[in-house]
Amino acid sequence: MKRKIPLIITFVVGVVLIFAEFIPHKPFGLISGELEKWYLIIAGFAIILGQLNLFKVNLFKIRYKQQNWQYFILTLVSFSVMVLCGIFWGTQNNPGVFGNGAAIATAMGDKPFDYLFLNVYQHLSATMFSLLAFFIASAAYRAFIARTTESNLLLAAAILVMLGNTSMGSILTGWLPESLKFLHLPRISEFIMKYPNTAGQRAIMIGAGLGIIGSSLRIILGIERSYLGGK
Amino acid sequence: MATAKRKQLDRRWLFLLLFVGVALPLIFVIGFPIETTENVRMVYNLVENTPPNSKVILSFDYDPGSKPELHPMAKAMMQHCFDRDIKVIVTALWPMGVQMAEEIFSDIQSKNPDVKYGIDYVNLGFKSGGIVTIQSMGKQFREVFPEDMNGTSIDEFPIMDGIKNFDNLSFVCSFSAGDPGIKQWVQVTHDKFNRPVTGGVTGVSAPSILPYVNAQQQLTGLLAGLKAAAEYELLSKVPGTATSGMDAQSIAHLIIIIFIVIGNINFRRDKKAEKRGE
Questions:
Q1: Fewer CB in 10 Å around end: N or C, chain B?
Q2: Residues A134, A161 share a domain
Q3: Does residue B135 share a domain with residue B180?
Q4: Residue of A13, A25, A40, A161 to mutate, interface with B, max B Cβ within 10 Å
Q5: Do A108 and A120 belong to one domain?
């Protein structure tokens, strides 16, 4: 029974939503509208669930002193500080439990939550993203080697797109006469992105779409049951 | 041994060169030429051809991690909308998107105090749920967003008068760093509710979004990466951080290409040496 009821709910909801997609009238339209509201409420709770899970997983790692357990303390402290700052003094125009914390805001220049967000989180986040540039450069130097015909093609396409996507492309081939403008690097780059890339991407998207339909049907029909937990 | 040594150039040299190559053009702006592309012109023309007093949604679906790439284009687009007297309704499918939009609005408002909150602009805040949220907005906008980000009822804002669903909007624009984002806006707002959708994405995710720019106009143009942001700034004649950032990006790409060439030369030399039996 414990497994049958969720399977029945999944089947009924799945079938109703498929019908609603093709027949958006009563009663299917109404039911799907109601189910969408339910989903939004559940999605809101999922955030709280995620936060609780973050605590649980990190506490577990600290308790059993797993590798680099000290870093998990830092995660929990950072998380708690941000949450408490938000609860106590609020964010931007929203007051917290202790009001707007005018004295603290005057001293810091912003409310504590906003101060940490603007001066710590934003910069750390941007730094993490920026580090990618260094890793990409290093990886490109090591991996972009013309070993085979395929890798030759990849290498040539990558260099043309890279050049075309910067001002260098315009400088290098900007002098070409009108009759040879099709060799202008930004145009070649645009061509590669528009045709070969799009063709490949569409094939991937169609494949992924069919995969999603297949796995959704398996879930609706109760063949795939891993979401219920257990074996 | 000689072969192995030649292959393993200390990557710290590459990092140092890249750092200098990016930092110097940001300090001393070179001003490399920027050419506009068709996809960016399509986005620009969409805003240009939207009648004044129309209402549009700008969805901020990114966080500070993608700020360097997406923020300049979002700022240029919002500024362009205000210049054309287009009313901007902001939503966010990512929690941090709310602050991203507020940052841009405060910056624009500090230079142009005529732009008023609630009349020309409103920030409805973050809503979880991704594609389902968009689907619900298309049917019952006011139920999904009954209040703005500060908890004020949307009925109090003149900008929200008459907004019931996507039919009351001219277009939707998503600045997207992943899921949920532009893909979901296309799949629902264009494909289901038949409203124009446009947007901006990071350079790295552009190849997977480009197929939506097609004859059916699932996407009306696309701003892909910092270059597109610089092109948009050029078209709207308001140079910003993207224009100056393009110098740094161009140099960085050039350095990477030079190192790819060096890597390949080393590989060829090693192969020849191997053949000779060295």
A1: N
A2: no
A3: yes
A4: A40
A5: yes
Residue ranges for chain B with pLDDT beneath 50: 1-5
Q: DSSP code of B29?
A: -
Q: What is the pLDDT of residues A24-67, one digit of tens each?
A: 888 888 898 889 889 888 988 888 999 999 999 999 999 999 99
Q: Inter-chain contact A133–B252, Cβ cutoff 8 Å? A: yes
Q: What are the pLDDT digits (tens) for A99-147? A: 888 888 899 888 999 999 989 998 898 888 888 888 888 888 888 888 8
pTM of the model: 0.88
The count of structural domains within chain B is 2
Question: Looking up tokens 């609706």, which residue turns up?
Answer: A220
DSSP B102-152: HHHHHHHHHH-TT--BTTTEEEEEE---THHHHHHHHHHHHHH-SB-TTS-
Do B153 and B75 lie in one domain? The reply is: yes
pLDDT at B140: 86
Q: Clarify whether residues B216 and B262 are in a common domain.
A: no
A92 closest CB neighbour out of B66, B102, B207:
B102
- Report whether B6 contacts B268 (CB < 8 A): no
Does the ipTM exceed 0.95?
no
What is the distance of C-alpha A196 from the center of its chain?
26
Cβ–Cβ gap A140/B260 under 8 Å: yes
Contacts of B67 in chain A (CB under 8 A): 122, 125-126
Question: Would you say residue B270 lies in a domain?
Answer: yes
Same domain for B199 and B268: no
Binding-face residues of A in 24-83 toward B, CB within 8 A: 33, 36-37, 39-40, 43-44, 46-47
pLDDT digits (tens, 9 = 90+) for B179-205: 999 999 999 999 999 999 999 999 889
Same domain, B7 and B65: no
- pLDDT at residue A231 in the model: 57
Task: Give a yes or no: residue B244 inside a domain.
Answer: no
CB contact under 8 A, B150 and A44: no
Per the domain annotation, does A136 fall within a domain? yes
* Residue labelled with tokens 């549009």: B56
Residue B33 lies in a domain: no
A144-156 b/e (C-beta count within 10 Å ≥ 16 → b): bbbeeeeeeeebe
B64 to A121: CB separation less than 8 angstroms, yes or no: yes
Write down the mean pLDDT value for chain B: 91
Q: pLDDT tens digit string along B217-252?
A: 999 999 999 999 999 999 999 888 898 889 999 999
User: By the CB < 8 Å criterion, does A205 face chain B?
Assistant: yes
Cβ atoms within 10 Å, residue A87: 12
**Same domain, yes or no: B112 and B58:** yes
What pLDDT is recorded for position A54? 93
